[in-house]
Recover the amino acids of this structure.
C-alpha cells in the first residue's frame, strides 16, 4: 500500500486510465502500470512454464483485427480493410502466415495442455469466408490441443454473416456467438458510422438458430453519441423479443482512442448511463433474465462466456494476434504489439510480439479478486476467498481490512460489504506501491503535477 492523498490518487487513476489503449481498464495490475517489453522469448516462456504447473483453467483467445471501417465509438485498435474483397483476402493471407508463426512459437510450451475455451474476437472475425474459416481452424488445431474445448465463442457483425459462413463455423464446433448490434436507432447509427437494420439482425439471428447455434449473446451499447434513454430502451425491448440466450449492455466509454474523442466529441454522462443501465437490467429481470456479470443478463446461470466471466478466478488466457492480451496466472500479464505492421515484423524476425507487460504474483491475483468482487458485486465472501486461495482474507490483508473499515466498508463474520460509490476507495486500499510507482513512471508526471494539490 502507498499512502497518498485521496485527491491526488483520483487524478493519478484518471491519468492511468488515459494510458489504457486496450479499453479494458478494469484489470489488475492496471494497464497504465505495465512496462515496455524488450523483444525476447525467454521471460514469457518462463512465465508460462510457471503457470502451467499451477493448473489454472486455460483459454485461447485469438484476435482478428480487421474491420471494414472503424466505428466512431470503438476504442479497439482495429485495422480498416474497406470493402474490396481482393484487398480483404490479401490481409487474411498475410494474417494466416503470421498467426502460424506466433502459434508455432507457443505450441511447444502448450503441447501437453488442452484448452478449455477458445474465443475468436476482433475486429470482425466474421469477415472470413468459408475456405478462410477452414484454414483458420486447421492452423489452430495443428498447433494446439482443442479436442476437449468446452466452448468456442465467436464475435460476428450482423452484416457479414450468411448460411455458408455459419455452417463453416458450426463444422468447427463454434458453440456460442456474440452478435454485435450496439444500436438500431437510425440517428445513432449515422452518428457512429455504422450501417445495419433490424431486418438484417433478425436474419443473422435466424441463420444462427437454423445452424443449431442457440447460444447467442447480443451486444448493445448504452450512452452512444446521439442516443437518449428512450432510444436505448426501445432497442432493448425489440432485441429482447428475439429472446437471446444473453444480452450484454456495455457503457459507451470514450477513451482517448475512439474517433469520437479524437474529433473532440462530448464526454459521455456516466451517471446518466448507469441510471439507464439499471433500468435496462430491471426490465430484463422482469422478463426472467438473471445477472451473469456486471454487464450481462442471461436466460440461465449457464448463459455465459466461460472464458471471460469471472476472470478473477483461477484462469489463464493465451492471446494470439495483434493487441491480444495474455494472462499467465500468478506470473505475467502482457499485451501483443498493437500495430499490424510491427506485429508482423516482430514475428518475421523471430521474436514473440509482446509490447507491454507486468510480472504478477499470487498476491496480485488475490488483490484482483478482492477488487473485482467488491467493485462489481459490492461484497466479498470470505469462504470464496478461502476456497480459491486456501488462506483467510484478513490474515493476508490485515492493513487493507483496517483501511476498508476506515473508508466505511461493513465487515461481518462471513463477508465484507461496500457502500455505493466505493470504487476509488477500493483501489486506493489495494493498489500496491509497485503499481503506483510503475504508473507514475509511465505517466512521466512532472513534480508540478503533484504541486497542484
Ligand atoms: S465496434 Fe466492432 S465493427 Fe466497429 S470498429 Fe470496433 S471491432 Fe470493428
Amino acid at each position: 500500500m502507498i499512502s497518498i492523498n485521496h485527491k491526488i490518487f483520483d487524478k493519478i487513476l484518471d491519468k492511468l486510465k488515459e494510458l489504457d489503449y486496450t479499453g479494458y481498464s478494469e484489470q489488475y495490475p492496471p494497464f497504465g502500470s505495465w512496462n515496455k517489453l524488450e523483444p525476447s522469448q525467454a521471460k514469457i516462456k518462463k512465465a508460462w512454464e510457471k503457470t502451467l504447473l499451477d493448473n489454472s483453467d486455460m483459454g485461447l483467445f485469438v484476435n482478428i483485427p480487421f474491420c471494414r471501417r472503424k466505428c466512431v465509438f470503438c476504442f479497439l485498435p482495429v485495422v480498416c480493410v474497406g470493402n474490396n474483397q481482393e484487398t480483404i483476402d490479401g490481409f487474411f493471407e498475410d494474417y494466416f502466415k503470421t498467426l502460424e508463426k506466433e502459434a508455432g512459437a507457443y505450441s511447444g510450451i502448450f503441447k501437453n495442455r488442452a484448452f478449455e475455451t477458445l474465443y475468436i474476437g476482433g475486429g470482425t472475425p466474421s469477415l472470413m469466408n468459408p475456405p478462410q474459416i477452414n484454414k483458420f481452424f486447421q492452423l489452430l488445431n495443428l498447433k494446439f490441443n482443442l479436442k476437449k474445448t468446452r466452448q468456442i465463442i465467436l464475435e460476428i457483425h450482423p452484416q457479414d454473416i450468411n448460411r455458408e459462413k455459419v455452417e463453416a463455423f458450426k463444422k468447427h464446433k463454434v458453440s456460442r456467438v456474440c452478435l454485435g448490434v450496439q444500436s438500431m436507432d437510425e440517428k445513432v447509427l449515422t452518428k457512429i458510422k455504422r450501417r445495419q437494420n433490424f431486418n438484417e439482425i433478425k436474419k443473422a439471428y435466424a441463420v444462427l438458430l437454423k445452424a443449431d447455434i442457440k447460444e447467442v449473446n447480443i451486444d448493445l451499447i448504452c450512452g452512444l453519441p446521439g442516443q437518449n434513454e428512450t432510444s436505448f430502451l426501445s432497442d432493448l425491448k425489440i432485441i429482447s423479443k428475439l429472446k437471446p440466450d444473453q444480452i450484454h449492455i456495455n457503457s459507451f466509454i470514450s477513451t482517448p482512442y475512439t474517433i469520437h474523442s479524437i474529433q473532440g466529441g462530448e464526454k459521455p454522462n456516466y451517471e446518466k448511463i448507469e441510471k439507464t443501465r439499471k433500468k435496462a437490467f430491471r426490465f430484463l429481470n422482469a422478463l426472467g433474465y438473471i445477472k451473469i456479470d456486471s454487464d450481462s443478463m442471461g436466460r440461465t446461470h449457464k448463459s455465459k462466456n466461460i472464458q471471460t466471466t469471472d476472470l478473477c478466478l483461477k484462469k489463464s488466457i493465451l492471446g494470439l494476434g495483434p493487441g491480444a492480451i495474455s494472462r499467465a496466472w500468478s506470473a505475467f500479464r502482457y499485451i501483443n504489439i498493437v500495430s499490424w505492421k510491427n506485429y508482423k515484423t516482430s514475428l518475421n524476425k523471430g521474436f514473440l510480439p509482446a509490447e507491454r507487460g507486468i510480472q504478477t504474483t499470487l498476491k496480485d491475483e488475490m488483490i484482483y479478486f478482492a477488487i473485482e468482487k467488491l467493485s462489481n458485486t459490492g461484497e466479498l465472501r470470505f469462504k470464496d476467498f478461502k476456497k480459491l486461495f486456501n488462506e483467510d482474507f484478513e490474515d493476508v490483508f490485515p492493513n487493507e481490512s483496517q483501511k476498508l473499515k476506515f473508508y466505511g466498508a461493513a465487515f461481518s463474520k462471513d463477508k465484507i460489504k461496500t457502500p455505493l460509490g466505493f470504487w476509488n476507495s477500493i483501489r486506493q486500499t489495494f493498489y500496491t506501491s509497485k503499481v503506483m510507482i510503475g504508473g507514475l513512471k509511465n505517466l512521466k508526471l512532472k513534480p508540478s503535477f503533484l504541486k497542484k494539490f
Notes: The chain has two domains: 1-29+360-453, 42-298. The longest strand covers residues 57-64. Residues 67, 70-71, 74, 76, 78, 122-124, 157, 180 surround iron/sulfur cluster (CB under 6 Å).
